[in-house]
Fold this protein.
Amino acid sequence: MSVILAIESSCDETAVAIVRGEAGLRAEVLTSVISSQIELHREHGGVVPELASRNHSLHLRALVEKALVDAGVAMQEIDAFAATTGPGLASSLLIGSTAAKAMACACDRPFLGINHLEGHLLSPFMDCTAVPPHLALIVSGGHTLLLDVIGPGRYIKLGGTRDDAAGEAFDKVGKMLDLPYPGGPEIEKVARDGNPSAYDFPRSMLHDPHLDFSFSGLKTAVLYTLQRQHGKVSVADLSASFQQAVIDILVGKTLRAARRSGRKIIALSGGVSMNRALRTAFQDACEKSDFEMVTASPDFCTDNAAMIAFAALLRHLAGEFSPLDGDIHPNLPLTESRDNVIP
Ligand code: KG4
Ligand code: ZN
């Protein structure tokens, strides 16, 4: 049985979690606490890196203390300390990773540097340390990635975005519509009262044989529609039509990837997977085509430390650790890192 404390501070959420689990058996999240900075960045319309890192540093100690109390675990009972070391904002990554390394040093325990995307990727499977082979779609603010997952640490990239990430497109369209930051959840809210067929937006690359995505054409189509119909546009119809185009692209490409890979399980993760319309569309498509769909619970779709602790738990159980003098990696990819074996 291993107990892991992890810190996530790659962007605008300061988060700490403690996870416990055994090799090949049950894993459980003992606590997962978050101090969100969304309100702070909202007035700037996006994340301000210096504000983010200063606030991570202000809130981290109290969050670590709260996590230990909530979990009923003493610092000496932690078997390894982990933190996100990339990708993300450099100054933010440094705060969390330095704090986790300091705790590891003080308690004479190993440190594990975790890839934020691996955290998202494994988040639908957090109740058991035996992760089955599957086809994964990660849809976050910075990434849209299709991967064939052979097992933990063994990921083959099948496709990615050639321009904007899905979440980025939601956020940019939200800005165009004068909705608060971040645009994703706001668009979902207003889209509930809209007609998804009101505007016929492009489904870029949907029928191309490759498994890459493109969302910048869709974003531009929304902008042109707004410019043409200035003042007369229905924000609800436009949001619903935009959201439907994103859903069609994501579902269409992911199911094609699953058929090609031969996997039977499709796992959906990342902040955009919070979107109820997207989850329902995936669920329907998977049922029709006999795939099993798994998603993270809503608490673990957007950035959190439980997913980082779970990824660290799997590595710790496999006997891995990271050097204390290892660096952070703001542009860390998921499929070319040291541990990712492509057979
Ligand atoms: O995974 P995440 O919390 O952070 C990154 O690693 O990027 O994802 C944040 C992204 C933002 O772009 C946000 O707008 C989007 O997830 N998002 C949503 C929803 N909730 C969050 N997009 C669409 N619908 C939502 N309900
Ligand atoms: Zn994320």
Remarks:
- The two ends are 30 Å apart (CA to CA).
- The chain has a mean pLDDT of 94.
- The first helix runs from residue 38 to 42.
